[in-house]
Here is the input.
Amino acid sequence: MADTESTCTSVDDRTEDLVSPTRDALVDGIVGLLKPCLDQLDERVRATRVSQSELHQQLEGLSVELIRVQEQTLCPLQLDAYIKKLQNAKRRVVVVNNILQNTQDRLNKLHNQVSKETARRKALLDTSSPSTVPSTSLHAP
Here is the structure.
């Protein structure tokens, strides 16, 4: 037999030859649909990398500038001890402020409870004997 002759003996053996062009057409169609999106995505990734590289260079330059400014503005006085004292004083003021705020909240609650109790007792006195017991307020004006 010659190389060009087919040795297929059934119809099933010949379906592979027919499926291959259809499959290739489908693959080409899918690739044709996805290729523009993939190319666009690839270009955007490339642009992002370039942008990040430029940003990195700018940050490096800014860092060098900040170091230079810091070196030029060094103060001959040692202010670290004073800064620590100010931070400690600030911390103490915040603690005292929190304590005062909590105390104020407690006093407000206590005042509300006293007002409610006074009103309740006054109402009891008014309903029990309005003619024999004079009404006096327990709450100072």
